[in-house]
Structures are given as C-alpha cells and as structure tokens.
Specification:
Order of helices and strands: HHHHHHHHHHHH
Radius of gyration: 18 Å
Largest sheet: none
Shape: globular
Number of helices: 12
Structural class: mainly alpha
CATH superfamily of the largest domain: Hypothetical protein, domain 2
Number of strands: 0
Distance between the termini: 21 Å
Helix content: 55-70%
CATH class of the largest domain: Mainly Alpha
Length: about 210
C-alpha cells in the first residue's frame, strides 16, 4: 500500500485544504460531534448560532433545550446535546485546558475519548488529530471508498485499516491532517457514490472497483 504518491497527487491537484476550520480546540471538538450524520454546511450554521458562547463552561451549564435549539440544523439534536455535554464533562477533567490534555499520551486519550458517550473511533481520532495534535489517521466512508477503488485490500475493522495506513506513511501531524482533508475533497469532487471519472487526478492509478 504505497500511499504517499496518492497524497502527492491529491495535494498537487487540490492544494492545501486548511482543515479542520475552527478558532479553538474546543470548537473543533464540538464540530466533531455535530458533523455526525450531517453535512458540514449544517454544522457551520450551528457553530454560528453559538455566537460568542462556544466555550466549555457554557455548554456544561446551558439548559439542554437551549443547546438543542442552537444545534437544530445538524439533526439528531437532542442526542447530540447529550453527547456534547458528555464530551465537555470529559474535557473538564483537564480543567478545559487543551495544553494540559496534550501532555497525555495519545493512546490514553483515545481510550478516554472512546469511553465518552457518543464518541466512536472516527470522532475520537478526529479530535485527537485536529484538536489534541496526536497522530491518529481518520478512517471514514470516503477513505474506504477511495482506497478500495484504487485496488487496495481493505480490512473490515476500523482499527485494522487505521493501523495499516499508519504503518505505511510517516507519523506526521501535518501529513495526517492534510491527507484526510484531501481524501474528503476528492470524494466530493470525483469519487462520489456514482463516480465522476472524467479529469479525475487518480484515474491512471485507479482499478475502478465500483459497486
């Protein structure tokens, strides 16, 4: 699985993506919850709805109905309020100090995050990579789709695929962040469920295993 050439092609084609868009680490964490099962445009509406209140103390103390109204655009808003409060309670264990959390090793943080209600592997790894500066490669539907179509054998297990990718590219925060963002961009432009192969930058490498 030689993935660096794929990264190089995507970077040359799309340029740096500057992802994840957030002004603070906590905003990024909130976005990771809100983006579950919805489009990012809906998350942007919710983030804007917080105004100047997007900080952990507000989320911890706010009435659930009030929070639900703010994040309504993201769907499943009542469940997401519960998840946001659970994640904020975890963050309280670090005094809402992201630098304090970053002092803890990544595997420990990952175990803690996976114990938080509503945080699965993809959400945990997103928070680890983009908020806590820990090199965990994010596996999502786009990653699986693109790698499968390129001809790679894809294990079913999330962590098996994550570890496989991590073993084949350097452990580098920038590389992981940019690669994930480029995969998302490529999936939106070309490698859709119904692919748009015309002018696809990866067409020459692609096995076109389309189901």
């Amino acid at each position: 699985m030689d993935l660096l050439p794929v990264f190089d092609i995507l970077l040359k084609s799309y340029g740096q993506r500057y992802w994840w868009p957030a002004e603070t680490a906590f905003e990024m964490m909130v976005g990771a919850i809100l983006t579950q099962n919805t489009a990012w445009t809906n998350v942007e509406k919710a983030i804007a709805g917080f105004g100047d209140r997007l900080y952990p103390e507000y989320v911890a103390e706010a009435d659930s109905a009030e929070l639900a109204e703010i994040i309504r655009s993201t769907g499943y808003f009542n469940q997401k309020v519960i998840k946001l409060k659970a994640l904020t309670a975890w963050f309280a264990g670090y005094d809402y100090d992201v630098e304090q959390a970053r002092q803890v090793d990544g595997e420990t943080l990952r175990r803690e995050l996976l114990s938080v209600r509503g945080v699965g592997p993809e959400t945990a790894d997103s928070i680890l990579l983009y908020a806590l500066d820990k090199p965990f490669f994010i596996i999502d539907t786009y990653t699986r789709r693109i790698l499968y179509r390129l001809g790679y054998d894809i294990p079913k297990s999330y962590d098996e695929l994550r570890l496989m990718i991590e073993s084949r590219i350097p452990q580098d925060i920038y590389l992981y962040q940019e690669f994930h963002a480029l995969i998302v961009e490529h999936a939106k432009r070309h490698c859709k469920k119904k692919p748009v192969c015309s002018e696809c930058p990866l067409e020459k490498r692609c096995r076109k295993r389309i189901e």
